[in-house]
Design a protein that fits this description.
Structural class: alpha+beta
Order of helices and strands: EEHEEHEHHEEEEEEEHE
Strand content: 25-35%
Radius of gyration: 19 Å
């Protein structure tokens, strides 16, 4: 496993051979066991440790934790939840028509491609409460927009590259909007209920 120093307070653990579930479990393990950590984050293929101060940065301390961590650990862990989210797939104020023309799919086919999958939360980033969801059909892979939209409203359900996600607040953005939902992971996170975590699953249902 590689230890990469990103800043005076931050290191990244990376191993291309590991899968998402491994990084989620490792994040939880380090978060519980490393007192000097201010925050532990996971991406789709790594874990980032932010220490409380540069004087606490210790690769050795993380290595000690890794020695007692393994894939088959018997610790009780929170079971992944499945979140079902209703989406209004509309051609008004979305990119649905443009996506349809680009892929030569009907709008009904696009909606089916987006709703027939079960997605998994790989990580949070970009904005507070913005979850990157993996599992999108390869038929929906799209690069980000060359010219980002100046305004994307809260609740926009969008796709870009290998991900889909929900915009938690009004913002600018380069993802392609397919519809809208009233659900937002941001409220769950800010409420402190810890109801949404990386590793959870998401299913979209056409409203």
């Amino acid at each position: 496993m590689q230890f990469i120093r990103l800043s005076e307070k931050t290191i990244e653990l990376r191993d291309p051979a590991r899968v998402l579930s491994f990084w989620i479990r490792l994040r939880q393990h380090i978060d519980i066991g490393l007192d000097q950590a201010e925050e532990v984050l996971n991406t789709e293929d790594s874990v980032v440790v932010i220490f409380q101060s540069s004087k606490f940065v210790s690769i050795e301390a993380v290595q000690d934790l890794l020695e007692v961590f393994h894939d088959e650990q018997e610790e009780e862990q929170r079971s992944a939840l499945t979140h079902r989210i209703e989406v209004d797939y509309t051609t008004e104020a979305t990119d649905l028509q443009a996506i349809s023309e680009r892929f030569s799919f009907s709008i009904e086919e696009l909606i089916k491609l987006h709703t027939e999958r079960t997605y998994q939360i790989a990580m949070f980033g970009f904005l507070p409460g913005f979850a990157y969801l993996t599992g999108i059909s390869s038929q929906l892979y799209l690069p980000r927009k060359e010219n980002p939209s100046l305004y994307i409203p809260k609740g926009a359900v969008a796709i870009a590259e290998r991900y889909t996600g929900i915009y938690p607040v009004d913002t600018q953005g380069g993802w392609h909007v397919m519809g809208y939902t009233k659900n937002s992971f941001l409220e769950d996170i800010m409420s402190g209920t810890n109801n949404v975590q990386p590793g959870d699953f998401v299913e979209f249902v056409s409203k």
